[in-house]
Amino acid sequence: MGIMKIQRPRGTADMLPDEARRWHFVEDVIRQVAMLYNYREIRTPIFESTDLFIKSEGESTDIVSKQMYTFKDRAGRSLTLRPEMTPNVIRAYLEHSLNQKEKLIKLYYVGPIFRYEKPQAGRYRQHHQFGIEAIGSAEPALDAEVVEMIMYLYHKLGLTGLKAIINSVGCRKCRPAYNALLKNYLGTKMRELCADCRRRAEANPLRVFDCKEPLCSAALCQAPRVCDNLCDACRDHFRTFRALLEESGIDYQVTPELVRGLDYYTRTAFEIVSEDLGAQNAVGGGGRYDDLIESLGGPPTPAIGFGTGLERILMVMEERGVAVADEGALSVYLVAWEKEGMDAGRKLLRSLRRGGVSADMDYRMSSLKSQLRRADRLGAPFILLLGKDERARGTAKLRNMKTGDEREIALDGATESIRQLTGSRG
Ligand code: HAM
Prior knowledge:
By secondary structure, this protein is of the alpha+beta class. The chain folds into two domains: 17-174 and 230-320, Bira Bifunctional Protein, Domain 2 (BirA Bifunctional Protein, domain 2), CATH 3.30.930.10; 332-422, Rossmann fold (3-Layer(aba) Sandwich), CATH 3.40.50.800. The protein is built from 15 helices and 16 strands. Strands 1-5-6-11-10-9-7-8 form an eight-stranded mixed beta sheet. Strand 3 (69-72) and strand 4 form a beta hairpin. The longest helix is centred in the first third of the chain and has 20 residues, at 17-36. It starts with 16 loop residues before the first helix and ends with a helix. The site of histidyl-adenosine monophosphate has 25 residues, from strand 6, strand 10, strand 11 and helix 11.
């Protein structure tokens, strides 16, 4: 029997060094845009009490009923790898009484998210999200700002071919009447619905809109629409939100079936969809959740946010041919031979690095030819040759790999000369 090769878990990915600069580019733009809109970073644990997600997202959502990575720790507590970040941020917000510092708190996060989903293009069991949560304001101007921000982020990343779809899912005042209306309608369609949807029709009718079964979608064609059944306050909010989107020049489309798969949403729901992504076409999505904080034990506090998948952003960048500038790589490769050369090399290497110059060398004392080949492969713009004759003169030879120029520099003060030549900041 051969040795079994261990592979990464299904639905996960390794980020290899060649892809790092694309990730870094995306993360840099994210942090820059977060700063521009006055969001500050928050980091919370990767796992939380399972109850947090059940309470926040709702028992009949796909995430809670099918997709959570839930496990018992050694003391028997039920924990769950975070399937999103909104409940976690609210948990931390309440735990640290962040509301007492300021009325409107704007937080952002970047990190891994876990959902047990069927893997396919653009859908993973571990993905990474950038998200924001603006906690403490019910103003529709904030809803418009949040959508503007996500669109501006995509613009800065060079993404095109995107569309904003929006809806209003009402509030706890108008939802019960709508639910009754929808339940009534679904009662006439029971035979066309899948087993899941029949259950949803009873327990949580709005969730039937999450179903991907073609027969269920067809049965919903004539269903009453939530955005046509809003109370006056929700209708006003939706109208102002749309007017402000128009004012910011954002194209949008009202999509009455958009309900966003989580129970906590109230009023505004939105998604940004891409022409390039196929079935998993949402690059980002979010909405308002004016009751969540209260339902987790806090004071009534309106809030809104979005999440956007980094993998999906990178996929659209790829499709759209967005080029990313090279990161500052290795500046100098030291080529040394004989024990004395190696000794001098190690000393210089340390001094270069402390001086802010990215440098490396081969400790194996391999042949000159193989060291030069390695320098070439690494693409260092300069190589420094620590040859015997030069060493005797207290110098080394610096070769500019682009121009082929060679010059002798004093070992004393070599770091300073190289810093100037490579423009290292240090
Ligand atoms: P979500 O729509 O479930 O919302 O996820 C947000 C984004 O994460 C999606 O638009 C997509 O880009 C990415 N995403 C989700 N699942 C996967 C997956 N399996 N593989 C790859 N990418 C994925 C939320 O999570 C809410 N917490 C957003 C929010 C914040 N609402 C209010 N505040």
